[in-house]
Every structure is written in C-alpha cells, then in structure tokens.
Amino acid sequence: MNLKLPASSPRSNPQCPRVGHFAFAALFCVLAAGAFGQTAAPKPSDFTGTWKAEFKKQVWLVLNLHEDKGSVVGILTHSIYLSSDNEGDITSVGDEMSNAKVEKATIEGGVLHIVTKDDDEGGEDRYDLTLTGPDSAELKPVSSDGSSPPKAFKLKRAPATPQK
Hints:
Blueprint (H helix, E strand, L loop, with lengths): L16 H21 L6 H4 L1 E7 L2 E11 L2 E9 L2 E3 L5 E4 L3 E12 L2 E8 L5 E10 L2 E7 L10 E5 L7
Antiparallel strand pairs: 1-2, 1-10, 2-3, 3-6, 4-5, 6-7, 7-8, 8-9, 9-10
C-alpha cells in the first residue's frame, strides 16, 4: 500500500525548516541537561571545617581541616579503641583519644585523599573523605595491609563559629 501525503503537508516539502529546528532544539536540550547535571570539582575550601563522627551520641572522631597556601591541612583526633563487626559496622569506641597530623591531602575525582601521621606512635594512616552534602561527608579508612577496614564513617560538619 502506498501512502501519498497531501501537497500542503510539511512532510511533503523536503526543505521544511521546522524539522531541522526541532531536531536542533531537541539536541540542545539533551546536551544542556547533561551539562547542568554535572557538578564542579570540589576545591580545597569545600573540605575545610570541623567534622565530627558520633557513636551512640559520643563524639569519637574530630577532623579539623583548614586551607593553607592552597593545600588542606589539619588534625584528626580519634578514639584509640574502635571495634567493628564482620559487616564493618562500628560496635564500640573507647574514651581515650589520639591525635594525628594531616601530612598530605590531595583531591582526586571529588575525593580528598588524606595521609595522617600519629603523634604518639608515628604510624601513617590513609583515609578518603567524600562530601555527601553541604555539611555531611564520609571518611573511609584505606587499608594498607589488605585487611578489611570498617565501613565509611559518617561525618557532620560543625557550624562555623563567627570570628571576633
């Protein structure tokens, strides 16, 4: 069966500009939606502040980060004792705290890779800090010996205190 379009139909004119404009507009919308959906790569200042993790209403980890000459520096204070179950969920934390200096911090792929050096023992630990919201993040310990680390610690950024 052959279908013949009426002479007044826009499809009968191969040079109809409406089809070209519609295709261009559709393509522009698709490309623009993709561009607006992308977020800018985080800057060092996006990670700065005082980050805290709690277990049963006890603050057991405080990560103080600030910017110095374009780099992220700071101190990680955490419970010396930390226990987790087979799934990596924290089951208990101790009261005694230890400090570790942020020796190196680099941003790669939206993640702040942190290397700390313990003040007491001098050992190095590695963490990945990923922003999950304006004032929330996850701090994931990175295992250097192949053991299974606990799940990422959920952190909340403390409100900034006004400077006097």
